Amino acid sequence: MDLNDIWHLLDQIKDPEIPVVSIVELGMVREIQLEDQNVVVVLAPTFAGCPALQVIQEEVARRLYASGAGKAEVRFTYMPPWSSDDITPQARQKLTAIGLAPPPKHQGFIELALLEPVHCPYCGSSNTTIKNSFGPTLCWAIYYCDNCHQPFEQFKPL
Amino acid sequence: MTGYKADSPLYNYLLGLADDELILGHRDSEWCGQAPLLEEDIAFANLALDEIGHASLWYNLVAMLSKQDPTTYPDQLIFTRHPEDYRNIQIVELPVGDWAYSVLRQYLFDAYELTHYTKLMQSRYPPMAEVAAKIRNEEIYHIRHSSSWVQRLGKGTAESQRRMQNALNELWPYTGQFFQPMGGNELLVDSGYVPDSGQLQLNWEGNVVPFLQESSLEVPLAPRQKLSREQHTPHLKILLSEMQSVARLDYEAGW
Amino acid sequence: MYGTTTDPVEIDNDEVGKLLQFEARIARGEKIEPGDWMPPEYRRQLIRMISQHAHSEIVGQLPEGAWITRAPSLRRKMILLAKVQDEAGHGQYLYHAAETLGATREELQEALLTGRAKYSNIFNYPTLSWADVGVIGYLVDFAAILNQTMLAHCSYGPYARAMVRICMEENFHKKQGQDIVITLARGTRHQKAMLQDAINRWWWPTLMMFGPPDNDSPNSAILIRWGIKTRSNDELRQDFLNKIVPELHDLGLTLPDPELRYDEEVGNWCYGAIRWDEFWQVIQGKGPCNKERMEARIRAHEDGRWVREAVEAYTQKKWPRFQVFVQEKSGAPHEDAGSVHAPDAEMALLNARDVFARRPACVSMWVVPVESIYSKTAQELGNSTSQRILDKDHSGYSSESASRESANSDHHSESDQQITGISTYEVFCKVKEAGTQTHVGEVEASSPEQAMERAVEKYSQVRKPLVWWVCPAHVVTQSKPDEVESMYAPARDKTFRMSTDFHTVSAMRQIRDGKPTTKDDR
Lengths: 158, 255, 522
Fold this sequence. Notes:
B: Ferritin; C: 2 domains; disordered C terminus
């Protein structure tokens, strides 16, 4: 098993609540340490209260062992904290494809990002209204498109 | 600093942070399904989950510090301790009251967290700095939410303003405790581990007082109580007896 | 065409053609989107299903929410909180999906609180132990997921897409519920007993979640024909059994059905008779928790009344309200259409266009700050009592604060005290209780009171108007004539908001005289 294999393996692990994107695409994988066949994977959690953290941790370890790792350790880091800017362009496209608006890039200025118009993932219009800055999960806000008349969720900038 | 033991200043500090978040998160969760608007059922569930997530981060540090298993020690602390061993401030254990009371308590606490964690991000104790940085980002959503409610209710109708003023009169005396450190805190300040409380208090008041006034509320003049984190109101006992009730059925069992 | 008859009674040819086209689209697997033509019954069924789904998510917070405070570990507490957030979030999302069909949140909420609207029966059962939380997450969510996976193929675009999203998130929660069940099943004797007791109580209600047997479901045929449902109740129920029974047996659990056995030949788990009389009792409100659930929601709603009033009052102060008058065609008078909040008149016109000009029939629009309108009822004119400032509440929230304001405040707003000399006042009046304020003309006057007198003099003819409004002409902001094309053109494509798309009297009669739809279709 080499580093490439491990990156590939991690890219198969989808976020349990957004199963179209992997933890790699979400920008959660910070570092992989490989020594002989002992692996340490360092992840940056998206939201502190994310209920899927333990599930992801267990899944990573399980797959590493299944691929022949001697020892598999999964650690969390907050330095620096995960940012929604870390979400890859491919992930952004995948989110839009299933009707989820990706977060705007904020470069640390979250309050400013919250003022930007949000584009409807279905019709592209910016004629959208925020209905709730809290949604079904920690990462979503609820919007409504006044152009094509559909509700949609937006990944909150963090 | 080496050789940590329970009740060392750093342990107590971290435990205080963790207990504050846990107890407030627990109170927030009491609104689920009962909020005045569906949007707020969602908001309070979100807030509660965030707070408890933050508590979890601090409890993990506590476990690390005491060289305990982080997968079991936090639950031990949460579900077996008696009220007198909890180290949260009293304002978070007060019951939810009405909507005005809850959003105001949330605002006062959120403003304190923002001030506090902004400084704590610069702690010379890296694990604490890391967690503070993570939490602080999420607090942006909290303060936007709670401050907008304070404004709407303070300036809304005569009734909402009356309720907000009552809530402020009741809660204000408890806010002094945000800035009352536990014994041994000077050590932590001198080491650059934690910020100075006096400075935090000035920052906090500088933000909160004008905001409350803009929201058409009168800040009480009565002096704030000197409270200890080792003492609690009767509310904590009731809260914990509910919180711990299922776990107590069998502490040895896995849940 | 509707129900079980095949003769199109009292439907004109145009409607027949549209219906055939519509059904052909569905047969081709096309999605129906907001704005597409749809038969009124399709719209009605969808609103019913979507709102029922939304109500279920919201009421569903209660049985589990009660255990968040008692969750026995930090992890379980967080996961349960996430689940309740998920349910409430989906509820809100689905209310917005119902809005795409023309239903308003206020209508739907009122229907729920007054007992007219239904929610999934399963939430009328109490959660008596921690094990119940696991069982709901595992069994009930699994059943819901099967149903939702089916609905993800629904012909109505926004609902189908919502189901895809919801399933993604709910799959996670079902696994967590399963995890609790597994933990208890492998736990202490006491935990196993707690779990078995929960299974015994939830098993039959879960089977009933899929709705009555196919031959007892009046709506099924039309729902399947129109692609709203793609699988029958019995099919889904069988699928559920086949998947879950082996898993539960593997965990050492028994099921409270002595007739449960596996039929090798058909490859199905066969089950005993479901007590449908219990199902109907519960649906009709006699279940163990119906009253409690509704009381909780009603209480939250009532206790929250002052909060919503405060929000409305605050919004009004920051974003004043403007009365909107719409002219449907050239030569017709402007008529009151309602009101909008906006920071200024220009924004009010834009907002008003979005809210009121969806119907193609709108060539011009006026907006007037609500506090500039002076109104008198015919009765007040008769008694010569003082005027009251108009402050009608259109929001659906209580108008207590509004009437308090109008009772306390004196008549004139600041802007009108600046009026000196003669100016033009626009006059509106309403002749029928159920009618709307309609523009009748103008008068010249030096004050609102004088304008009112002159208006009554000039326009009181054979029909006696019930209510009079006057406002200074200079506070009226009009849409510009050349804006008509660009502002209102998009509305022409959005036919779904035309009144012809809603129930015609004949269609209603047809449905009423066909199969009654008083029972839940599932």
